[in-house]
From TrEMBL:
<dbReference type="InterPro" id="IPR036291">
    <property type="entry name" value="NAD(P)-bd_dom_sf"/>
</dbReference>
<dbReference type="Pfam" id="PF01370">
    <property type="entry name" value="Epimerase"/>
</dbReference>
<feature type="domain" description="NAD-dependent epimerase/dehydratase">
    <location>
        <begin position="4"/>
        <end position="216"/>
    </location>
</feature>
<comment type="similarity">
    <text>Belongs to the NAD(P)-dependent epimerase/dehydratase family.</text>
</comment>
<protein>
    <submittedName>
        <fullName>UDP-glucose 4-epimerase</fullName>
    </submittedName>
</protein>
<dbReference type="InterPro" id="IPR001509">
    <property type="entry name" value="Epimerase_deHydtase"/>
</dbReference>
Amino acid sequence: MKKVLVTGGSGFFGGALKRRLLTEGYDVVNLDLVAEPDPPATNLKSIQGDIRDTALVDTLFATEHFDAVMHCAAMLAHEKIADDDLWTSNVDGTHILAEAARKHSVKPFVFISTNCLWAHNVGRPVREDDIPAPVELYGRSKLAAEEALKPFENDLNIVTIRCPTIIEAGRLGLLAILFEFIDEGHKVWVVGDGGNRYQFIDAQDLATACIASANYTRSDLFHIGAANVPTLREVYQAIIDAAGTKARVAQLPEAPTIAAMKLAHKLGVSPLGPYHYRMIAEDFEFDTTRIRQRLGWSPTVSNQEMMVKAYRYYSTKRKEIESRAGEVSAHSRGAAMGVIRLLKWVS
């Protein structure tokens, strides 16, 4: 594997993967709707374009002679994007890439999927053979993209990696709201007692899995995530301890809080959607047995370590982050706080 197409390489994880590949000596072509944010490099070519543009995609495959595809591009539900745009980008775009890979005999195809395929606690770590049940458009689109890739599994080595929330220095989005509360010494609210366990994945651990998957010799499906998942309260406390502010963890009653979140979503005044209010007080963890056994992968970074790293990035660069607008990906800028600002006022 020498030349890799990374879709979404201007985004948060696509960018982290792109930089990792460049550091390890690969030639990388970044295809993204967003302009390349990183400095020029001799082994990097950046194309600002749409994965739904069949002619563009076919020309890229014909001229660049890729050795592998790492498909990270996705439109997110909390961006101001028409439903049809989200669906066609996440589903049709994925199909177009796979068609081009098959036509041009590029067998390694790594697809980044999501834990948003579920919005309930199944009572144990979720396995690859558990039946998905997404509740939002984004989750449904990622499941449909997985289905769109299945007809290609005999011709390509399709490796789908389902990820929980990906964390690294620079991860913002909804996390920027949490970090702002902590940075300013406000109460950090958990719903219920904060004893629920929610798994994350470190961006570099995921990049390691992507590189290994591109050298895997058949199609497969993997769940990935950090090990020894702590409670949400423990994660928040680790960030507070690292920040050294007067922030502290406080509790909100579960039933009325979730009812209020549902209402706020219906009124369009909250950045939190059905997935968030269903999972905010629930456990969710992937069973990573298969990827450990078949790919020889293992996580190296804990939930606490990656979140502290992300907070320190935010705290150091807060003024610059707050000036960012739509020219960067959604995960690389702070999400609008909306009605959550009321909690800040009373804490």
